[in-house]
Each structure stands twice: as structure tokens, then as C-alpha cells.
Amino acid sequence: MKKIAGKTFMTSEEAGLDPLTPQDTEDIKQRIRKGRAPQPQGPPERDPLFRERLQDDLKGTEFDPDRPPKSTDDIASGA
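The chain above was modelled as a monomer; its predicted structure follows.
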């Protein structure tokens, strides 16, 4: 058992746990392989209204796509 920075580290035997069986070990390895398998590419199809609902969050902000760009006069006056 080791104590490092206030945390206790011990082996499974020191913790009183039963050792893993070969079946348990194989199951863990299979889960790891499945997790590392290539995932489908591209985002899932979305509801076409999804983007429009979030678009309202941008209205009236500096990120509003319909907002005209600031002119140099507006920047100079602080408006």
C-alpha cells in the first residue's frame, strides 16, 4: 500500500478483492476493443428546425448574421 499526496493506492489483493478470472479478463479486453473500434463518421441527421430554433439566440447580439457590419464611424464614436 502506498500513500501519495493523501491518496491511498493498493493492489486488489491488499484491498481484499478476489483476483480476476480469465473470463473476466477476456470480457474487459473485448469491451476495450469495442470501444476502440472505428465509430460511424459524420453527425446524425438533425431536425431541420433545430438550427432555426437556435438562430434566435443570436438575434440582437454582435453575432447576428443579419446585423450590418459596423462602419469605422461607429467604431470611432463608440456606438
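The mean pLDDT is 79.
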